[in-house]
Design goal:
two-stranded antiparallel sheet, 23% helix
Length: 180
């Protein structure tokens, strides 16, 4: 049987080549823009697909909180003895990942590193996002929540503020700003 492979956050222009080299792999992106730019179908969402996967290849995300989130989530979707691989550019924090990964093998080339480690699955919590939210109360009194690596996760950006001004005081309930 072909190994089940998960590829997380493939770089722009690489999804088709990755899909060709790993037929049947599940490609996943955390943001809609990555999904739309891909030349082949890529799943998108806020939480990794359930698995189990025999191997998970993660492209080093920008930001340490997103990296830590992925390193916590990846073992939750692996089959027993699954392979976790992380690839990243030397200037984008792969050294920090190397320290966080624990025992691993490393290969270098073209200013990048590939880190591989065998992992046992960890239990998937009922709410895999719990503990990862950045929450704050806006000066106008409403609560805001964001996830690591999401644009403007810890403060509203000018576009969101313009959206709020346009909605005015008439809005009730939850509002989801999709960042269009």
């Amino acid at each position: 049987a072909r190994p089940r492979t998960l590829i997380v956050d493939p770089p722009p222009g690489a999804a088709a080549a990755l899909a060709e080299r790993a037929p049947g792999a599940t490609l996943f992106a955390f943001d809609e823009a990555t999904r739309r730019r891909a030349e082949v179908p890529v799943n998108a969402g806020a939480v990794l697909p359930p698995g189990p996967f025999d191997a998970t290849l993660v492209f080093q995300p920008k930001g340490t909180r997103r990296r830590d989130l992925l390193l916590a989530w990846a073992p939750q979707v692996l089959a027993p003895g699954g392979l976790l691989a992380v690839v990243g550019h030397n200037k984008e924090g792969i050294q920090g990942t190397r320290k966080r990964l624990g025992p691993h093998a490393s290969q270098s080339g073209h200013h990048a590193k590939l880190l591989t480690a065998t992992r046992e699955p960890t239990p998937r919590p009922p709410d895999p996002l719990e503990g990862w939210w950045t929450r704050y109360t806006h000066p106008e009194g409403f609560d805001v929540a964001g996830l690591p690596g999401v644009f403007s996760e810890d403060r509203p950006d000018p576009g969101s503020l313009a959206l709020l001004a346009a909605i005015g005081d008439e809005a009730e309930g939850a509002v989801l700003d999709l960042g269009a």
